[in-house]
Design a protein that fits this description.
The protein is α/β, with parallel strands linked by helices. Helix content is 34%, strand content 15%. Bound molecules: pyridoxal-5'-phosphate.
Length: 384
């Protein structure tokens, strides 16, 4: 007998962890003020780029003496630019607890060939942060998008550290508290919590990071696309909107629109409250359904953006095939797109809960997950 589908469906089935749902009010005509077909170095374009930087500063509360630059190649570009420019001056610790952090370890060890201390944890866990030596340069991901595990706070980072902290915060910025005094390099992409477009990355530098840039020249060559200094001085233009190469002014406009929306809902506090409410809706459902569990069992380190779930039922023999079938069923029913776990992560579901997602939609999705789960379980017993 077919299991009855829930009566209510999410209004917006977009729960992808990147690119993430656009702002709830989004329509393409909101981008009509983009200075298309004009030079990004003309006054209008420059003003837009500068506004993108300054509005980011205002909403995220970035200190006035930190530099914010718009750089090429989304978050990956920003992280690799930081690593290639800054690492090699001091000993390095690399921290990873999921796929993207593991990618930065590969960069440091295999590409830059640094003799780094590497600390890793399994999916769902985090490394022992108290053991991290912040007198070394430390590279880590604030929110592990593929495991749904986040850093709980910056208490483990010494105020008087000798090293630099280089933090990939792409799925944390605009949803979680980032302690700016503890972060020397912070990166993110517009395509995540604000539901913007990819293409550009944001690179935020503390005064100590700038000092390193101006006093240290790495042993390896830097392509033009990575160069932040000229003649031993920071290229200041990059941090007022004079980008290294040509940006997409359509993507810039889209980011400005998303920042305006963020302000209208109460800025960072409003965004965090929305993400927290979305996570709470999932938590309530998981509490009521013992066949579902969080990959991050410990609520202290559980993400409020990339929420990762696993199926816990003895009848499931092939976990990957089962989770895939559930995700496919939800996609086909047009209730949830792109919620299968990341390809390298344990089998399960990943539901984006960042601020552009409506809590009513998360709540409406939950009974559909139950429907898809029960339907797939029933199919198992038929085929057995
Ligand atoms: C933690 C983390 N780092 C890096 C990336 C790569 O981001 P991008 O494709 O915007 O460069 C992602 C993308 O999902 C991510 O989640």
């Amino acid at each position: 007998m077919a299991i009855e589908a829930p009566a209510t469906r999410p209004e917006n089935p977009r729960f992808s962890s990147g690119p993430c749902a656009k702002i709830p009010t989004f329509t393409l005509d909101m981008l009509s003020d983009a200075p298309l077909g004009r030079s990004h170095r003309a006054a209008g374009g420059k003003a837009k780029l500068k506004a993108a930087i300054e509005n980011t500063r205002a909403i995220l509360g970035v200190p006035a003496d930190y530099k914010i630059g718009i750089v090429p190649a989304s978050d990956t570009g920003a992280v690799e630019m930081a690593m290639w420019n800054l690492l090699g001056a001091r000993p390095v610790e690399m921290l990873a607890w999921e796929s993207f952090g593991a990618g930065w370890v590969t960069d440091a060890v295999k590409q830059l060939k640094l003799d780094a201390v590497v600390k890793t944890a399994d999916y769902g866990q985090i490394v022992d942060l108290a053991s991290v030596d912040t007198d070394k340069d430390v590279v880590f991901t604030w929110n592990g998008t593929t495991s749904g595990v986040r850093v709980p706070n910056g208490d483990w980072i010494k105020a008087d550290r000798q090293g630099l902290t280089i933090c990939d915060a792409t799925s944390a910025a605009f949803a979680q508290d980032l302690p700016w005094d503890k972060l020397d390099v912070t990166t993110f992409s517009w395509q995540k919590v604000l539901g913007g477009e990819a293409a550009h990355g944001m690179l935020i530098l503390s005064p100590r990071a700038v000092e390193r840039l101006e006093s240290y020249t790495p042993a390896w060559p830097l392509p033009k696309i990575f160069r932040l200094t000229k003649g031993g001085k920071l290229i200041d233009g990059i941090f007022v909107g004079e980008t290294i190469n040509t940006p997409s002014m359509l993507a810039v406009e889209d980011y400005l629109v998303a920042l305006d929306w963020a302000s209208s809902i109460g800025g960072l506090t409003g965004l965090q409250a929305r993400a927290n409410a979305n996570l709470a809706a999932v938590e309530e459902f998981v509490t009521q359904n013992d066949w579902l569990a969080f990959l991050a069992a410990d609520p202290e380190i559980r993400s409020n953006t990339s929420v990762c779930l696993t199926f816990e039922d003895a009848r499931i023999k092939d976990g990957a095939a089962f989770a895939k079938a559930v995700a496919k069923r939800l996609e086909t029913a047009d209730v949830a797109y792109d919620i299968g776990a990341y390809r390298d992560a344990p089998a399960g579901l990943r539901i984006w809960c960042g601020g552009t997602v409506e809590t009513a939609d998360v709540a409406a999705l939950m009974p559909w997950i139950k429907w898809a789960f029960e339907t797939e379980i029933a199919a198992l017993s038929v085929s057995a």
